[in-house]
Amino acid sequence: MGLGSRRRRGVTAAIAVAASITLAACGAGKKDDDSSASGSGGTSAGGKAITIGLTDPVTALDPAGSYDNGSLTVEANIYQFLLDVPEGGKTPQPDAAQKCSFSTPTEYTCTLKSGLKFANGDPMTAKDVVFSFTRILKINDPNGPASLLGNMAKVAAKGDTTVVFTLKNPNDQTFPFVLGTSAGPIVDSKVFPADKLLADDKVVGSGPYAITSYQKNELVNLTANKNYGGDNKPKTSKITMKYYSDPNNMKQDVQEGSIDIAWRSLTPTDVEALKKDDAVKVLTGAGGELRYIVFNLKTMPGKTDAQKLAVRRAMAYSIDRQDLAENVFQGTFQPAYSMVPQGIKGATEPFKQAYGEKPDTTKAAAALKAAGVSTPVTLDIDYTTDHYGSTSADEYNQIKRQLEATKLFKVSINGTAYTTYRDERVKDSYGIYQLGWFPDFVDADNYLSNFLSETNFVHAHYCDEGKTGRPCDTDKVLPLLTTEATSTGAKKDAALAQIQQKVATGTMPYLPLLSGKQVAVVHGNISGVQDTLDPTYKFRMWLFSKS
């Protein structure tokens, strides 16, 4: 799944606080010039055809069966969402919806724009919206986004244009964001089966583009959707997506001009080399990707909870993030001192404050000695060889060198293919291991509730799946998650700061390492790519043009 994948969103309990969010009737992206439009509800985009190289594979193009970056890259361009975050934006804006707002603390109501159609000509109605969300929960595919809808009790249509979501927990300020995630694409109820997935080459959406030919994870051809009635009019009528298993081949093709755009996942060394090639331009943008270490609180080294915590803190004192960022990732990543990366509203840097910006062997040794931990501590650290980029081996070899340089640790690192790695980590086979994260939406909550809620996906046994007496109770994180998810302004920021501080200085089940920038490489006169490089990780192809 390329350099990372989207994961399960934990459901945060909420308190009943009266609030309302109203989103004005405006587009989800910048409206193109008149040459891209053909009057009402259509597009006659021209421009030269563009070929895009990618490495993130597609799991499924049926939204009920996919929750990963590779699938969402295509889905974001062929489907509409009720709400979506526009390029460079930080809050959801109407897409297929004309407006959305909280009508009561537990009811979120959306009104559709008029005249919307799917690519096959079928009209889009509230019935299709209800169908789209209910089938995700009904199918509940293991690779699907059902967990994102954990706070949705039900959804119902009122007439052809009004949709009402009833929420389990009131005043969920993150729900508008959820409508623009992998759970949000609107599908045609006349085409998609209600109880099973539809084949990729049969899917129909209402987005800016429609699929004209499809070879899964090889070649996908898109054409501007003539029935598209939204505001994101394509500037280019034909897009070809070419998939690569080896990013080095993609690098060569963009240098030679065989493809116009290369997006994810070039190695840091390749990116550095491409910056010196006058035939191409390397573009960078803000990203929300996070690389971090997970500690399994049951199986990691240490005879007692206190000893395990001392090992975690000693590691935090010993790892040099700046060294990793510069010497392994060539500046394509930056140090992360919180589970919420810098650039996301509400982010703080508690790990820098607690453990320092540079390694401190003296403090690491003191933490171990105080807990009665004998040194050197034997550590087995696991990582996946093929899921977070080929640089993972270099990253964990460097971490091994850093830890062993303190003379406090003896480290073995173990690389495993992701298909095995994914299964083994949930069996408690690993004590200390690598994970990565791409946000579902650009809000700090998405970096916290997923990892700290009682039913978090990480299998670190933090909270121990809701059993009392475990670290979540000790840290008192759950009440803070409730406050954060239902608040705005200074109250929300204060709760976020407290949560991040507790992760760093409390139980510390995670050790954040690095946050990533987005990188795309273009050959020739390509416009619009820079505009889409933001923390949403949505590749908005309707912005692209070639001259």
TrEMBL record:
<dbReference type="GO" id="GO:0042597">
    <property type="term" value="C:periplasmic space"/>
</dbReference>
<dbReference type="InterPro" id="IPR000914">
    <property type="entry name" value="SBP_5_dom"/>
</dbReference>
<dbReference type="GO" id="GO:0030313">
    <property type="term" value="C:cell envelope"/>
</dbReference>
<dbReference type="GO" id="GO:1904680">
    <property type="term" value="F:peptide transmembrane transporter activity"/>
</dbReference>
<keyword id="KW-0732">Signal</keyword>
<dbReference type="GO" id="GO:0043190">
    <property type="term" value="C:ATP-binding cassette (ABC) transporter complex"/>
</dbReference>
<feature type="domain" description="Solute-binding protein family 5">
    <location>
        <begin position="92"/>
        <end position="456"/>
    </location>
</feature>
<feature type="signal peptide">
    <location>
        <begin position="1"/>
        <end position="24"/>
    </location>
</feature>
<protein>
    <submittedName>
        <fullName>Peptide/nickel transport system substrate-binding protein</fullName>
    </submittedName>
</protein>
<dbReference type="GO" id="GO:0015833">
    <property type="term" value="P:peptide transport"/>
</dbReference>
<dbReference type="InterPro" id="IPR030678">
    <property type="entry name" value="Peptide/Ni-bd"/>
</dbReference>
<dbReference type="InterPro" id="IPR039424">
    <property type="entry name" value="SBP_5"/>
</dbReference>
<keyword id="KW-0813">Transport</keyword>
<comment type="similarity">
    <text>Belongs to the bacterial solute-binding protein 5 family.</text>
</comment>
<dbReference type="Pfam" id="PF00496">
    <property type="entry name" value="SBP_bac_5"/>
</dbReference>
